[in-house]
Each structure stands twice: as structure tokens, then as C-alpha cells.
Amino acid sequence: MTPTPFPRIVATDLDGTLLTSDGTVSPRTRQALRAARAAGAEIVFVTARAPRGVREIAARTGVDGTAICSNGAIVYDVATDEITHSSPLTPSAAREVAETLAQVLPGVGLAVETGRNVLAESAYTRRIEADMAFYREVASVFDAGQPIVKLLAMSAAHTADDMYAAVADAIGDLAEVTYSGVEGLLEISAAGVTKAATLDRICQERGIDAGEVVAFGDMPNDLAVLMYAGAGYAMANAHPLVLAAARHRTLSNDEDGVAAALEALFPLSLGRGIPRR
């Protein structure tokens, strides 16, 4: 799987990767993305965020194509603001997962990402200020009759690493369990639904080989994408599991690591970059 000189898809995570720690996109990164697009590459955001958390970033970066959202459960058309594909958990699988979580992590709080909104039980205390208009308080996430694009499990008493270690084997093949940087939060998708699986489907639709993809990420939910791509780059600030497994590394998100790598892959006038390794 040898990458072409100019990759056809640049697949990048957002938080901790493309975005700086204050949630902005640097001028250097915007320039690098423009240069990659000018060279013929498609920019695909591959993120745990829901579509509502992607559109503004896409506008700031000039990206108007396809985004993979909610850890692969949603394919989102940025230009039309439409969800073109969704792979939710079945209600029965979600209930079984919730029962397992309650047994292994007593007191865990649950919320559901529907694709457009968040349904949150009282024990799920995490609130994102910019998202408050999209939250709905419910007695049970299973009584609302809404699609369960992503089941969120929160525990203030545990780290995400500890939660994952406690529940991954118990849930087994029933669902996909991962996490993306928020302490005490697990993100659970339907079995077989990952960022990498959805990216592969998009590549197949476009006739693109995995070797023609360059990818960037920082957290365990990015790892499958980094291993799938012809060139998968871990950010310098990445989770230890990602740093240990990824074949390539770049600078941190606050050092414009995505831009630095793209400058070495695409013909930029800035004359900066890092060698591929």
C-alpha cells in the first residue's frame, strides 16, 4: 500500500488535531488545506463531533464536501447541511449496552446523540455551552423514540481509559466503544461503525485506494483511521496508544502539525514542512 505522491484524500480529525487548543484554525493550516485542495485532494473531516459542530469549522477552512461525523455513524454533506447516511444503534443493542454499563460502572450517566440533538438523563452532567440549544433533558434516553447515533456514557469517578478497560470486554461485539479526549466519557456506536469503516466506504465509492489517503489524529477513536491510511500521522500531543501505534508523527496541534505534514506532501510556496518518515 504505497501512497501516491499527492494523496487523493486528506482525512483529518478536528479536536486536538486540526484545531488548536483554543478551538481555532490557524492561518498556516488554512493555507495548507487550500494547497492540498488545489493539488486535487479532497479534504474529509473525520470527527467525533456531530454535524452541527462541523459546519462552522468547514466554513472557516473552505471545506465544503463530505464529513464523517459521530465516529463514523454519520456521513454529512457540508454544502447542503444534509445527513446523507446514518448508522444508528438498534434500540435493543443500546439497551443491552446500557445494562452492561450500569453493572460495570454504577452511577454512570447516559446521553444520546441523535444526529441533530442530544438527549441527556439527569446523571449525565456534561454540557457544552455552544450546544445548549440542542440539549433536551429526558427521564430515559430510550423513551424518546429518537435514533441512537451515538450512546454517551459519563462517569465523574473514572478516567476514560479506566472506563474503557472496564467495559470493552463486557460489551464485546455488541457495539463499538471508544473515546476522544473528554475525561470520564465513553462514546458507543453500532457494531462495525468506526471512523475507518466509513472512510473506507467513501473511498470505495470514489475509486480511491487506502494508499492514496493521508490521515491525522490524536485519540484512540482515530487509531483505526491512521492504520487504514497509506500515511497515518499521530499528532505530537496524541494519546500514548496512538503515538505507539501510528507509523508517522507530526508536530502538535498547537504547532500546526497537520499543516507541517501537508507542506511536505503538497507543493506549497511557504517552503516549510517536515520530511515523511
Automatic annotation (TrEMBL):
Pfam families in alphabetical order: Hydrolase_3
Keywords: Hydrolase
Gene3D superfamilies: 3.30.1240.10, HAD superfamily/HAD-like
GO molecular function (one): hydrolase activity
EC number per UniProt: 3.-.-.-, 3.1.3.-
PANTHER family listed in its UniProt record: HAD SUPERFAMILY HYDROLASE-LIKE, TYPE 3, PHOSPHOSERINE PHOSPHATASE
Entry protein name: HAD family hydrolase
Species annotation: Nonomuraea salmonea
